[in-house]
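Slides due. Your pick:
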Amino acid sequence: MTDTVLLDRRDDIAILTLNRPERLNALDYATNDRLLQRLDAIEDDDGIRAVVLTGAGDRAFSAGGDIHEFTRSIEAGPEPAVKQFVRRGQAMTARLESFPKPIIVAVNGLAFGGGCEITEAAHLAIASDRAVFAKPEIKIGIPPTFGGTQRLPRLAGRKRALELLLTGDPFTPERAHEMGLINRIVPHDRLMPAAFELAGRITRHSPLAAARIITAVTRGLNASITEGLQIESEQFARMARTDDVLEGLHAWIDRRTPQYQGR
């Protein structure tokens, strides 16, 4: 059987590729589960410091959930549908959002439904100038189920998010950039080089510091400012006990490039 999520490596950067191009990289249950397995392996590999996630082929990053598959779950009733479809998708986007190593989504084409929700959940995103985004779930009579009703309003604001969620209309990478859904737009043939360049600018720093920043931001978004500052303080305290922070400080004082070991 074809592996639905490919794993490659470029130095200390893992490359994950959603690999169902004949189905526009639709997220069936097996693909969702395989992505989680891949993330588990990457988290345990100390040699990997960042992840680039993209889609196979030239047409789509991901067209969203596999409608044929989740229709069967819905036909079986609300409980099977929530268990098999909703919880699975929400667990996947939550894992991406809280993953301790930076994840950069390289949007190479369509990012509809669940594909858009992956982009919302990931830490960073770069889009090809050929990318197209949409929140089309309303067209088949359901709300988004992988976190789209929650993350998009936090990124774009309530009114702009509701316009996209209630119309289901596609939108351009320029609109996605304006709303904060993506960081950059690049020519299609520069997409992966741009993702690797961004990853390289991150991986030159302490991987422990990167993990502490991701944790502080992810947890703090859902907290009051007072609680968020406490989270920030806790993450600093965890970092202050590491060799990496001393290496960074001494390298700055000695005017040399730090050599971080991730400990």
Remarks:
- The longest strand covers residues 5-10.
- Residues 23 and 63 are 8 Å apart (CA to CA).
- Strands lie at 5-10, 13-18, 50-55, 60-62, 103-107, 110-112, 124-128, 132-134, 184-186.
